[in-house]
Write the structure tokens for this entry.
Amino acid sequence: MAKEYFYSGCAAAAYGAKAARVEVITSYPIRPYTGIMMELSKLVANGDLDAEFVHGEGEHAQMSVTLGASASGARAYTGTSGVGVAYGMEVYSPTAGGRYPCQCAIADRALDPPGDFGSEHTDVMSARDQGYIMGWAESPQEVFDNTIMFYRIGEDQDVMLPQFCCQDGYFVSHIPGKVPVPEQSQVDEYLPPYNHPHPLDPHRPTLHGPQIFPDQGAAIDIQRAGAHANLPKVIEKCVKEYNEVMGRNYAPMLDEYMTDDAEFVFFLQGGHAKTARYAVNHLRKKGVKAGMVRPRFTRPFPSDEIAERCGKFKAIGTIETSTSYGGAMRGGNLIHEVRASLYDLDKRPAVTSMMAGLGGEVVTLDMFFQYAEVLAKAAKTGQVDQWVYWAGFDIAGWEGARRLQF
Amino acid sequence: MATVKTQNLEMIKSTRNAPKAEMYVPGHRTCAGCGPALAYRLVAKACGPNSIFLGPTGCMYVANTSYLCGPWATPWTHCQITNGGAVASGIEAAYQVLIRKGKWKGELPNIVVFAGDGGAIDIGLQAMSAMMYRGHDALFVEYDNESYANTGIQTSPATPYGANTTFTPPGKAIPEGKVLFPKDAPQLVIGGHPAVHYVATASVAYPVDLMNKVRKALNYQGPTFLHLHCPCPKGWLFDEAKTVEMAKLAIQTGMWVNYEWEKGEYKYQHTPKEYKGVGEYMKHQTRFKHLKPEHISKMQDFINAKLKAPGKPIAVPVAGPRERA
């Protein structure tokens, strides 16, 4: 039977990796993800986990070590945060394009400047288009479960893609929560040993990554795209099975809260969803028909599900915890894809966005309430006054904080 | 517990005695007279079939693997020009654990990075150094053709002083072309990696010596480093029939020295009774054609100093670009 532990998000990731029987681990210190590797190094030192622990000389090396290990047929695990995510950038496309299903845990951190330990999603959102599977957990329990689930999804022979298994720095990575840890036999039943169909093996020689000529590019790229096209089905299957074996209740793609009769919803990924749920509870008490939608995956982006299930809302507000300077709508990244996903509907909700949680600031209940006013108005009029709002700076009537005039 | 290699590859007595089996086979499109391709053939032959080759970006990636094909009878993988040492570390770590868990049966494969000078001691230096430091059982080969040749002959830290490259063209303001003196690759490895017990230099001019150094390196448990002198007709601009001749001249003039460093002991090979002047080597290569006698003599001073203790840290009478000559 499952035993319940009290784990931070970092510890949950480490014990998830242990349960997944990772074989090659590679580390480099950077806050806040470091805690994952501190836990794993103890497990290896004490002989509780039989794995090679490689101290990488940087994130670029971490990504390279996991690539090499995964290419050779070993289940490989690493992780990073913030500028570390950026430093590993060169190796993401070779890993995804080479179809090596290793896992990289992410505990988000703002990019420089200025130096900042706080959580912000811009780090790994900057790497979202390389072909990795990518999704945020809301709690340590979901971190643990995603670590195992993501391996199963990524290693599916119709997929074979690496995974960014993401959690918010500090808000999830450093706040302990209850984690029911299943029996090892349950995990083994769910997650079979990693099987690379053509590893680097002297018994059956093969080439990985030879040069092509430009005309051959599309034929190869379409395979990576095809793997992503296969993902929604594989995710549905793997999440359903996980729920059955472990007694969980995860939605495959979209986690919805109080959406049945909602007029508007907050749309956001990751740990701030916890606060959003409380905000919805408070708003409901006042008779405001608010709800929340949380994508469990950002790659693949749940376009079909959004088109299918979010068209009924009158307004959607994306809570942007990442920046997209100069991008469409001038705000964060989520609004681009939410708007695009809704485009083919005859009746489209009004969609606007709120920059919040940047640099690791706490997204407060007050911010959600202020934003709810904006969304309630948009729901009524059917249109938005602004594409983007900066919480604390330009939302009218914001308590005590019209700090900056644009 | 670490899995250790138990192989004892035999030394090769002569070219006739070398293994018949080719592990680097015809079907690539390297240039006529390519030194690195010749080196690759010898290295792969010496390694044999239980090997995995890694190709950081460079000539030996691009010219070898056209149209999704490659000339290896062993597994091979591309890696970035930056990360040969790190990918090798991952492969080695994987084999350690796979063998330990009984998931792969056999002797730990020879894991061989075949990197150019840029992939070894310039952009690839960090990954190589970390692989050496961590003690992975892998052989790192630097095939030195003394430039970023694949991208059109740009200067690298292995390019000799005075060379005309597409990033160091000689001109009125900078008559020498390249003004800097090269890094000493083996010293970078020997100098600071306690897990390394064997480092050697070799030349395509002496194939038996080269193959035996490969085998000696592979018989060691842990990381090893080979620095191979590989003349490049396109980059150095000499007659492509004279690759081996150029390699020999380098040794006769002291521009290259063959040696082994084994657990702290130096052994030298092919030392000429008397060194010829460096001009005898440089005059055959158009990359040095623009040099004036004072430049040649500056090169001679550098080489004379290096030859006092090849492969060892020694002061050379060379002014850096920010000091007075």
